[in-house]
Request: fold
Amino acid sequence: MHTSDQGFELIKKFEGCELEAYKCAAGVWTIGYGHTKDVQEGDKWTEEKADFMLWRELDDEYEHYVNSLVTVPINQCQFDALVSWTYNLGPNNLKKSSMLRVLNEGKYDEVPAQMKRWNKAKGKVLAGLTRRREAEGLMFEGRSEEHTSELQSQSTISYAVFCLKKKKEGS
Reply:
């Protein structure tokens, strides 16, 4: 199975596209849509390269993890949600997760709650990760379209609050 356009867009939305290398919340050098392999301070990409590298990484690596580790039948929405989760958290977290165990036991209805548990970086709950896990859980359930505008509004409001706090700190 391969990531659909809807799954690709979900990943892009939550990763965001940064065309210059930066350190993410976990302290890892990152560029494009969350690309971390061989990234160094000062690296710069075009948006086209960022799109290409995301498609390539999903195709070469992350889809394989989901295809090989999930042992029960899943639909496209479930696959897309799992690829997004794995892209963000890494294959080792997928392998050791209770989410994968629950899924492979056929307890599909418990998977979204298991996904939502993974909303921390360096031990702190992050609003962006909480929103991403919520969106992945909804996609897993096949309900992602219902809440797209609500999640976008929450993301915009959170960003506006962040900007206002930064502006106030700088004053």
Notes: The chain has eight helices and four strands.
